[in-house]
Design a protein that fits this description.
The chain contains 17 helices and 16 strands. With 435 residues, the protein is an alpha+beta fold. It folds into two domains: 15-334, Bira Bifunctional Protein, Domain 2 (BirA Bifunctional Protein, domain 2, 2-Layer Sandwich), CATH 3.30.930; 346-434, 3-Layer(aba) Sandwich (Rossmann fold).
Length: 435
């Protein structure tokens, strides 16, 4: 006898979980398509070289990688974005640009399972390929805000910055290329641990020079007023063209959001955020749910150099990935949506073998009217059939025994109210459809 056991880090989803997942995914699909994005799907297996050198050394330790029967070095898809870049590059001659796509598919990572972290999970990405316009970045922020509002989130913010601004800050402070990522990783913590703790980390852990640290912290001083903060950066970084370009792009994004009528409580300028440092090239942003300290639920930004890796020429791109697994868990834990326990509206009971034909006709008639109907398959005791319907939370049971058949009607039992009535099948349909 085999022991029923699934692999660690993988999950089974029964009906309730599947329905919640389908609801959340359905919201994202509807919002994406509302903004002109179209679906894309790519294979589960890719050549390993597609991901090698792009995902990073630590990520490559998590590849589900093997040699297939044809001797090819292949792996399960590590993330959908790189797979999308390969697909776009391979079909670039046939894709009208700009190309707006969304992709909601499973990916696989051989990491240590823990709460909220799995070896197989769903990624939810959307991207615009082939446009360098910052309007694409701004529109994505608007779209992400709408998606989270539609899902029922009330307290969240899009934290917005620019990779070019980060580059300019490091250059202004006198940092070098080796300092860049360590400094960014530390100043990313400024809103959480404060300037003194960040300074200590930069000096003691990151081994960054005191003069560089002081200048970094001087220029990144916080302000709640976006316009004032941008002007302060303009004053201090006016001689650094890359920083000025980044600030110009940020102003375009904030002008777009204001013109689009987006409530400013849902976005803010945060010059400290550091995400995707290995590949983001311009605007960067993340969506952070503040209520309940959920944290970041999406990482996004412009990555103008990634697709060019496959083509030898620059193809601008921007977009982001929503942490759909985290979003689903939060929605489930907080009971933010109420879904029916089952899509089945009616159970047609089977009285005995002599009435099977009538029960089948009744079930098919109900289905023809768009009513989800389960025909009980056994001639079990009626109480057992009613108990089954109750356990499944099916609201109605139809009984068609010899007496009902003779009268040309059916007995309709409403399990929610505990009431039963003799009624025509046509009237039963009207009653069920109104419920």
């Amino acid at each position: 006898m085999l022991k029923p056991q699934k692999l660690s880090g993988f999950r089974d989803f029964f009906a309730e979980d599947v329905r919640i997942r389908e609801y959340v995914i359905g919201v994202f699909k509807k919002v994406f398509e509302k903004y002109g994005y179209e679906p894309l799907q790519t294979p589960a297996l890719e050549y390993t070289e597609i991901f090698s050198g792009e995902a990073g050394e630590e990520a490559e330790k998590l590849f589900y990688r093997f040699t297939d029967n044809g001797g090819r070095d292949v792996m399960l898809k590590y993330e959908v974005m790189i797979s999308m870049c390969r697909a776009v590059a391979e079909n670039i001659a046939n894709i009208p640009l700009p190309y707006k796509r969304y992709q909601i598919q499973n990916v696989w990572r051989a990491e240590k399972p823990q709460k909220g972290r799995f070896r197989e999970f769903t990624q939810c990405d959307a991207d615009t390929i082939g446009s360098a316009s910052v309007l694409c970045d701004a529109e994505f922020i608007q779209m992400g805000i709408e998606a989270l509002q539609t899902l029922g989130f009330k307290k969240f913010k899009a934290q917005i910055s620019n990779r070019k601004l980060l580059n300019g800050i490091i250059k202004y402070a006198g940092g070098n290329e080796q300092n860049f990522i360590p400094i960014c990783l530390s100043i990313d913590k400024l809103p959480k641990i404060g300037a003194q703790m960040v300074k200590k980390e930069l000096l003691e852990k990151r081994k960054v020079g005191k003069e560089v640290v002081d200048r970094v912290l001087d220029v990144t001083g916080s302000s709640d007023d976006t316009s004032a903060l941008i002007q302060r950066f303009r004053s201090k970084l006016k001689d650094i063209p890359t920083a000025v370009e980044g600030l110009n792009e940020l102003e375009q994004i904030f002008d777009y959001l204001k013109t689009a009528g987006i409530d400013p409580q849902f976005y803010q300028f945060n010059p400290c955020i550091a995400r995707g440092l290995a590949y983001y090239t311009g605007p960067i942003w993340e969506f952070e749910v503040e209520d309940g300290q959920v944290g970041s639920v999406a990482g996004c930004g412009r990555y103008d150099n990634t697709i060019g890796r496959f083509l030898g020429k620059k193809i601008p791109a921007t977009g982001g990935s929503f942490g759909i697994e985290r979003i689903i868990e939060v929605i489930k834990d907080r009971k933010m949506i109420t879904l029916p326990a089952t899509p089945t509206q009616v159970l047609v009971a089977l009285f005995d073998k002599t009435t099977f034909s009538e029960s089948l006709k009744t079930a098919n008639f109900l289905r023809s009217k768009g009513i989800s109907t389960l025909l009980y398959p056994e001639t079990d005791a009626l109480q057992k059939q009613l108990k089954y319907a109750s356990l499944k939370q099916i609201p109605f049971v139809v009984l068609a025994g010899p007496d009902e058949i003779k009268s040309g009607k059916i007995a309709l039992k409403d399990l929610r109210l505990g009431k039963q009535k003799l009624i025509s099948l046509k009237d039963a349909v009207n009653l069920i459809q109104k419920t």
